[in-house]
Amino acid sequence: MSTEDTRKRSASWPLYLIGALFVVGFSSVVAWNIELPYLAYSAGPVSDAGDSVLVEDIDFYPPDGELLMLTVVTQDVNIFEAAIAGVDPTIDLVRKQAVRREGETDEEYRNRVLQQMDDSNYRSIAVALAHLGYELVPTEVVINELVEEVPAADVLQLGDTVLTVNGRDIESVDDFPPALEGYEVGDTIDMTVQRAGSDVAVEVELAEREDEPGAPMIGIVLGELTEPPFPIEIRAGDVGGPSAGMMHTIAIVDSLTEGELTHGRVIAGTGTIDLDGNVGSIGGIRQKVVAAEAAGAEYILVPEANYESALTAERDDIEIVPVATLDQAISFLETLETA
Which pLDDT belongs to residue 206? Predict the structure, then answer.
């Protein structure tokens, strides 16, 4: 190799280095801006469910302890953020399709989870007052759940108030079976619902029941709105989803009853509540255990269906208590000694 060739190679190597750095830098920028089909779940803020309960015209007994409701923060991730989440035991990656509906915008998703919170608050009030023995008068029939992938899911929404079915007035859940008599799978029925203050007429194709082949169904779970005997509401702030249902229910029971369910302790919990008082599973259980312990909770009540997953959360001393019903949750709290 000549001296001249050596000089040419020596002069060109910085250009190769600059080119390589440019490629790496460009690739990094591209990777940083590519969102993956995952959401990162991390522990979110906590608040006292008892502070959300507002009542009038009745004796009120605020808990001495705390009944913490828990939240999860979700965010889109790129390749680098996903890598960081993969080595952080307090963060989980969840596929977006498990959380978001196909084609759902951010605004649509936000409206949906806020509606879920409104529905949850109603159930918490109804279940708590029924537990305490109050008489509740039905006022409206509402859609509490929608079965996915049935025709009704395209035209009905959670929280719709059902006014008529095939021209028959619907005043209670018991009015539904007679309105569907004589119809078969694939038939179309007429429904009128109230949505956002307006009456909406829809046509609904009947689907087939999975548990009873050949039997028709709309694909909805109904509930009856009731009128409380005194003013009561839940103001949970800018929080969405149904997972605070159990804790709001317990907070109402504790606040309207003399004595202390908390026994002066810090109790955290999570789980949906249905109108029969059953506690349902939720998402982000591992992050909620982390948040509960960080907030100083001694115990966390979790849905029975989430218990095994909750045990894998990063934690030290917090005790995880599985519950399947409101009665089970209250029975556990009643066993605690005063702090």
Answer: 93
The answer to whether residue 314 scores a pLDDT higher than 90 is yes
User: Which residue, among 72, 76, 52, has the nearest Cα to 62 in the 3D structure?
Assistant: 52
The alpha-carbon radius of gyration of the chain (Å, integer) is 27
Q: Which residue, 317, 208, 211, 210, is CA-closest to 268?
A: 317
Whether the CB-CB separation of 67 and 262 falls below 8 Å is answered with: yes
The answer to whether residues 137 and 224 touch, using CB atoms and an 8 Å cutoff, is no
CB neighbourhood size of 194 (10 A): 15
Distance CA(281)–CA(273), nearest Å, equals: 9
- Of 104 and 307, the structure prediction assigns the larger pLDDT to 307
pLDDT in tens, 194-206: 987 889 999 999 9
Res. 176 pLDDT band, cuts 50 70 90:
confident
Between CA 302 and CA 293 the distance in angstroms is: 13
C-alpha span between 54 and 252 (Å, rounded)? 9
Burial class (CB in 10 A: 0-12, 13-18, 19+), 221: middle
Give kind and range of the element (H or E) at residue 46. Answer: strand 38-48
Burial of 147 from C-beta contacts in 10 A (0-12 / 13-18 / 19+): middle
Q: What is the C-alpha to C-alpha distance for residues 218 and 188, in angstroms, rounded to an integer?
A: 10
- How many Å apart are CA 201 and CA 244, to the nearest integer? 33
Model pTM score = 0.73
Q: Which tokens go with 312?
A: 């894998």
Residue 106's identity, in one-letter code, is: D
Q: What's at 229, amino acid-wise?
A: P
Beta-carbon count within 10 A of 230 CB:
11
- Degrees to nearest 5, angle at CA 281 with 279 and 282: 120
Mean pLDDT score of the chain: 85
Burial profile 263-295: b = 16 or more Cβ within 10 angstroms, e = fewer: bebbbbbbbbbbbebbbbbbbbbbbbbbbbbeb
Alpha helix positions (H), 33-105: 79-87
